[in-house]
């Protein structure tokens, strides 16, 4: 429950982006709140993501640049999300249309 609280507080502090960015008119920090069901999957590379996590990742993953921005966002970082683990969630969710090979900062989607 603590990571969800941290995400909510950061959302209130960060606010909503005023222009269009990687995730459209919503900031990556705001979109990161949708990945709350993925907190345990983003912490343990051996865990199986929940169906609600996979649904959220699939929806956000329609835009690889948004998914990348969310995984590297300040909200994700503050919640203790490990980008090197989070980047593997689309594969662990068996997303057939995931952007394999997409560069996300120092990471590449498997």
Automatic annotation (TrEMBL):
Keywords: Signal. It comes from the Eukaryota. Residues 23-104 form the Bifunctional inhibitor/plant lipid transfer protein/seed storage helical domain. Transmembrane segments: none annotated. GO terms for biological process: systemic acquired resistance. GO terms for molecular function: fatty acid binding. InterPro entries: Bifun_inhib/LTP/seed_sf (IPR036312), Bifunc_inhib/LTP/seed_store (IPR016140), DIR1-like (IPR039265). It holds the Pfam family LTP_2. The keyword Magnesium does not apply. Residues 1-19 form the signal peptide. Gene3D superfamilies: Plant lipid-transfer and hydrophobic proteins. The keyword Signal applies. This is Bifunctional inhibitor/plant lipid transfer protein/seed storage helical domain-containing protein. It comes from Miscanthus lutarioriparius. The lineage of its organism: Eukaryota, Viridiplantae, Streptophyta, Embryophyta, Tracheophyta.
């Amino acid at each position: 429950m603590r990571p969800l609280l941290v995400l909510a507080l950061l959302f209130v502090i960060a606010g909503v982006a005023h222009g269009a960015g990687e995730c459209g008119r919503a900031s990556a920090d705001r979109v990161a709140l949708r990945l709350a069901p993925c907190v345990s999957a983003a912490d343990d590379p051996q865990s199986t993501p929940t169906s609600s996590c996979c649904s959220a990742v699939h929806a956000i993953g329609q835009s690889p640049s948004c998914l990348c921005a969310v995984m590297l966002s300040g909200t994700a970082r503050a919640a203790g999300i490990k980008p090197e683990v989070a980047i593997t969630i689309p594969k662990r969710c068996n997303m057939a249309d995931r952007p394999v090979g997409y560069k996300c900062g120092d990471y590449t989607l498997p």
